[in-house]
Amino acid sequence: MGLYIGLDIGTTSTKAFVYDEKGEIRGGSQAAYPLLVPEAGRAEQRPDDLVEAVVDAIRGAVQDAKAKADDISAVGISAAMHSLMAVNDRGEPLTPVITWADNRSIGQVHALREGREAGRLYRATGTPVHPMSPLTKLLWLGNNQPELFKRAAKFVSFKEYLLHRLFGRYVVDVSIASATGMLDLNTLDWNESALHLTGVDPRRLGEIVPIDERLTGMDGGFAERMGLRRDTPWIVGASDGALANVGVGALARGETAVTIGTSGAVRTFADSPRTDGEARTFCYAFEPDRWLVGGPTNNGGIALRWYLEKFVIGEGESGDIKEQEALDRIVQMADSVPPGSEGLLFLPYLSGERAPYWNADARGTYFGATLHHGRAHFGRATMEGVLFAVRTVADALTGISGDSRSLLASGGFAKSEIWTQMLADLSGTQVVVPDTYEASAFGAAAVAMRADGAISKLEDLKDGIRILRTHEPDARRFKTYERYYSLFKQVYELLEPAFPAVAELQRGTGVNHEEESGGKK
Ligand code: ADP
After folding, report:
1. 155 in the same domain as 232
2. Which ligand 1 atom is nearest residue 263's CA?
């Protein structure tokens, strides 16, 4: 039986896992690197740090699995979306890896939104016009580093750079390409307007390939260092978001993945490209009958951690108390309060917000506080607020891809039974918690297995995904939450005109909030 490697190149580390054909993990390894923030708004990585991490993670995983080079049938790759780097004609980097979190192109975003281009580009490419998008990063580079922009032979994502180092080819899977803001959803080729706007000739971009494209003939030095054969096929794979859906088994219509880690995302596969009339969600190509639609939110578990650190255990004390214990304690405390936190609502927009409002100026707000409310109420309201925000994204998706039959929960929040039951009650939808250790790596391995013929379709691995628990919504609690949810949306609408003023006041005080989102203007 062959073994398959799922490689997941993330923002803070690269992980590799070795799986057998049933999807059982045989070994794994992880290599971390820094996200460099030389000044506010920049978020970069050193290309060599990432390449070395890939080598280390794969070598470590092969060793951990006690596998020989001959045992490995194929490698599948998952990578973070939206990265951009410029390289010269010898393939040498002219820039660091500019990551999704880099905000320098906010001015270009505002300019596109003021004109009519933003809406047109979104409808054509499915990528929201936002500083995360390589399209706006290219505009920024053209404006701010014109010499470098002219000199660059190619503009590529980190995955393309890696594949060029390993195989001598700049190939970009359709899924990563689709998240550049440059790929046309209809033609699956580079979009004419995007090319015209950025002034980039298609020859300066990578070759677009399907997610199951095979690459063989790896550079001998790299193969030796990784402990792999030169002729072991690498399957180009897709983005980490799409592969996380594969990894949790959210493959069919009505199955929606809800990930809440530090930030959050709601994603589902549609069978054709679907964009949103109000540009609230993304739509990225994956394969001919699967298109990833969804929305990212900035304020996931970080909101609960913030509440915990600032108001429960006290600043500076967090080192004394184990985080898991502290989280468990606060969740227990919150559970003693009824749904709706007895009239206390929380808008969790501590770091501005991306989907569905795309408003960098939005801020956190507790609403309805009275003398009656105490720490437990605020704790519960915080947990509920994160989920209300997730529901606004899920609702935007419903309009595009239909109702969800079940929500597949992953990320740190899924460790808490109380929080996942709350999601079922608040959304009125069944919540399933799969045992998804490293969903994106598993999804990448699944694509590699299919390309190699070990499985015939991605669904074949679903039986191998163990379900930890299933939560059914409670009708009474759902009814209560419906009233709170209406109020939540109303409070957001009411506050929307006031957010820019408070954001401006905060800029004056030098408050260092994370401004991930682009601002609706
Ligand atoms: P990342 O996205 O950075 O990988 P994780 O997926 O580990 O982060 O999620 C971290 C978040 O998950 C924490 O900020 C916290 O809100 C939440 N979390 C983790 N463990 C628990 C728990 N036992 N109970 C409730 N929430 C938890």
Report:
1. yes
2. 2
Mutational test site, ligand 1, from 11, 12, 328, 413, max ligand atoms within 8 Å of CB? 413
Instruction: Look at residue 419 and tell me if it is in a domain.
Output: no
CA of 442 to the centre of ligand 1 (A): 20
Report if residue 443 sits inside a domain: no
The tens digit of pLDDT for each residue in 450-488 reads 999 999 999 999 888 899 999 999 999 999 999 999 999
- Give the domain range for residue 348: 297-403+477-509
Closest CA to 391 of 517, 475, 297: 297
Q: Is the CB of 304 under 6 A from ligand 1?
A: yes
What is the tens place of the pLDDT at every residue in 71-127? 999 999 999 999 999 999 999 999 999 999 999 999 999 999 998 899 999 999 999
DSSP state string for 366-407 = EES--TT--HHHHHHHHHHHHHHHHHHHHHHHHHHH---SEE
- Measure 51 CA to ligand 1 centroid, in angstroms: 28
Instruction: Report the distance separating Cα 495 and Cα 504, nearest Å.
Output: 15
Overall domain count for the chain:
2
Q: Tens digit of pLDDT for each residue in 325-376?
A: 889 999 999 999 999 999 999 999 999 999 999 998 999 999 999 999 999 9
458, 506 contact by CB (below 8 A): no
Contacts 24+ apart (CB under 8 A), 479-482: 480/339, 480/340, 481/339, 481/340, 481/384, 481/425, 481/426, 481/428, 482/428
Write down how long the chain is: 521
> What's the pTM value of the predicted model, to 2 decimals?
0.93
Q: How far does the centroid of ligand 1 lie from the alpha carbon of residue 323, in Å?
A: 10
Which of 240, 415, 440 to probe ligand 1 with, by most ligand atoms within 8 A of CB?
415
Element housing 8 (H / E): strand 3-9
175 alpha carbon – ligand 1 mean position (Å)? 27
Tell whether 86 and 233 lie within a shared domain: yes
At 290, phi and psi to the nearest 5? -135, 120
Residue 410 CA: nearest ligand 1 atom is 6
For residues 201 and 318, membership in a common domain is answered with no
410 close to ligand 1 (CB < 6 Angstrom) = no
Q: How many CB atoms lie within 10 A of CB 4?
A: 28
Closest-lying ligand 1 atom to the alpha carbon of residue 323: 20
Distance 8 CA to ligand 1 centre (A): 19
In whole angstroms, give the CA distance from residue 109 to residue 103.
10
Q: Do 60 and 160 fall within a single domain?
A: yes
For the four alpha carbons of 514, 516, 520 and 521, in that order, the dihedral sign comes to positive
Q: Which residue's entry shows tokens 């500076």?
A: 316
Tell me: do 341 and 198 sit in the same domain. no
